[in-house]
Amino acid sequence: MKKNFPFRNVEFLIIDLETTGLSTENDVILQIGAVVAQANGKVKRTYSTYVNPSGSRQFPWGDTEPPAHHIHGITNSQLRGGLSTKRALRKLNRLARKRVLVAHNAKFDYGFIKSESVRHNISVAVDTHLCTLELSRKLDPKRSESHRLGSLCERYEIPLDSAHDALCDAVATAQLLSILIRSHGATTVDELYRLAS
């Protein structure tokens, strides 16, 4: 996609993940939430799935609930009904075509998508993306405020009913993106890339 397109010709794919931990080498994706949205925050389409990393009823962690359960609340029962990692990523890849990729703390989310894609031998192009965390920090050069998603939602009065549910976080990030676009006065995707770099 040409980065100098005005926003009226652009769709964003905003993604959020829940995982078993922070290591792209040792941890895995448990839930994917994604929304196709416009620059004004209007959501046109959503995608959400639990991800069954083993593709079976057995998990590497046994019968205990998944690692980081105390954060995301995801259960083994929910994962058993989810898509395999390969199928979930293939569907996400189809959604990503010709759209601008966005996440809050994009290094984390897209790092996991890239590592899981390599692990499962799938080609997913996620090297170019926007980060709402970085865009928000640019408005606060002295870092005097928190830029966690939950804090920003409180500050901008964005609904966040189920924090750490991937789709709920993705929807909130879509609203945040629209606010940050206005706050920066950006008119093209290229401007946003420069701001977030």
Give me a quick take on this structure.
The protein has 197 residues and is α/β, with parallel strands linked by helices.
Task: List the topology elements.
Blueprint: E1 12-19, E2 29-37, E3 43-52, H1 69-72, H2 76-80, E4 83-84, H3 85-96, E5 100-103, H4 106-119, E6 130-131, H5 132-138, H6 149-156, H7 166-184, H8 189-196
Parallel strand pairs: 1-5, 3-4, 5-6
Antiparallel strand pairs: 1-2, 2-3
Helix pairs in contact: 6-7
Give a quick set of tags describing it.
197 residues, alpha/beta, Nucleotidyltransferase, domain 5, six-stranded mixed beta sheet, 8 helices, 6 strands, globular
Task: Write up this protein.
By secondary structure, the chain is of the alpha/beta class. The protein has a single domain (10-196), classed as Nucleotidyltransferase, domain 5, CATH 3.30.420.10. 39% of the residues lie in helices and 18% in strands. It is built from eight helices and six strands, in the order E-E-E-H-H-E-H-E-H-E-H-H-H-H. It has helices at 69-72, 76-80, 85-96, 106-119, 132-138, 149-156, 166-184, 189-196, and strands spanning 12-19, 29-37, 43-52, 83-84, 100-103, 130-131. The chain has a six-stranded mixed beta sheet. Helix 6 (149-156) packs across helix 7. It starts with 11 loop residues before the first strand and ends with a helix. The relative contact order is 0.20. The model has no long low-confidence stretch (mean pLDDT 93).
Tell me the CATH topology.
Nucleotidyltransferase, domain 5
Q: Kindly report how far apart the N and C termini lie.
A: 18 Å
Helical proportion, percent range: 25-40%
- Domain count: the total is 1
